[in-house]
Amino acid sequence: MSKTIKVFSPATIGNIGPGFDVLGLAVKGMGDTVEVWKTSCDKIVIEEILNADHDITKDPDKNTAGIAAREVLRLLKMNRGIGMRITKGMPAGSGLGSSAASAAAAAYAVSKLFDDKLSKMDLILPATLAEEYVSGGFFADNVAPALLGGATLTRSSVPLDVTHLGSISDLIVVLALPHIQILTKDARDILPSEVEMKNFVSNMANACLIASAFSTDNYKLFSRSLKDIVIEPVRSTLIPGFDEVKAVAMEAGADGMTISGAGPAVFAITNKKKKAPIIEDAMARTFKKNKIDCRTLLTTPSHKGSLQVTSDDFDFFNH
Ligand code: HSE
Known about the structure:
The protein is of the alpha+beta class. The protein is built from ten helices and eleven strands.
């Protein structure tokens, strides 16, 4: 029997607040697993998709894992058959990079299957091409941290130019996932085409400070820069109760709260272990008060990003 390579890729927050399409962060506790093996035919076949919360196509030309696998084979100049199994570990359309996690895991797994010749940096482009198919936009703020771990900065999409920033060791992320779905495409379509200069300057300053915070492992810098006055005011209108949830999170001691990616997930930050469950509870109760069911998770940055899983009892909560 041919060997199987199994890879886990974590959930990601992309964008981190004001770093729209630029800053992304991998987090522990949720993610997708992709298994790949060689077959004797010359096609990519997605055999199974497990644990999906909605219909996901097994057509390899329309599924992000299938497209990423195809693009990696193209980079390797190989025309080989591959079987794939995808196990979803997070809700789709939640703002936590669900399609990016599948793309990143597939790209890394296929590269490992064929002698591991490509670096994680090399795999960002194939995974981003897969993301483009489902989101309609070419951005790497989910796939880059899903592959590399920690926080990443995408300076340019074409040509792709990604820098790994690092992480913040005492950062606690309080995630709330309201049970509503927002398509990335819809959340992009409502954005303004022009931005006032003073708002541009504010977001740019805060995004730069976040990059510095992750590069120097400095929670204090991050705690004062999670402010987005361009995208958040527009997208938050798609999330019932957002303003109230943010207000209670801050009252409960959070140092900031904003939307994760295109939403509807939101995240608050703290570096105080005792405060985190209080913030979590306040956010959950306020979504419920607004008649929105939500799931919450206290988590921290995933430093490793995508990794090969070698045992069956892989503890994804800690990766
Ligand atoms: N940067 C993208 C956005 C990510 O916010 O639209 C979507 O997952």
